[in-house]
Amino acid sequence: MRCLIIILIILIVVRLLSSREGLTNKPNEKERQQMVESVLQNKNLFGNTSDMLTTRNVLPWMDAISYEDLRKLYRHEKFTKSNINNIFD
């Protein structure tokens, strides 16, 4: 019984901590605008010669899915503020 309670407490703590990491929660409007501006200032990170590791060094909040979506926009020459904003929306 004691072991079960400890396991449940651990699961609750892990769940609470994991919900605060990365882009699991939607950014608010101010955060989204900052993210869009950061991406626009570092658009060279989404070209053919870049990789996720380099991008995470510059933009540590970037997740793999957003990274690939941004690379796709860059390749198709649709790297605009509104399109980037839609990725983080």
The Rg value, from CA coordinates, equals 17 Å
Instruction: Return residue spans where pLDDT drops below 50 for at least 5 consecutive residues.
Output: none
Number of helices: 5
Separation of the first and last Cα atoms: 44 Å
Overall pLDDT level: 85
Helix content: 55-70%
| Number of separate structural domains | 1
Largest sheet: none
Strand percentage lies at: under 5%
By secondary-structure content and strand pairing, the structural class works out as mainly alpha
Would you list the SSEs in sequence order as H and E?
Answer: HHHHH
Q: Please provide the count of β strands.
A: 0
User: What would the principal axes of the Cα set say about the shape?
Assistant: elongated
Care to describe what's here?
The chain is mainly α and about 90 residues long. It has one domain. The chain is about 65% helix and about 0% strand. The chain contains 5 helices and no strands. Helix 2 packs across helix 5 and helix 4 packs antiparallel against helix 5. The chain is elongated.
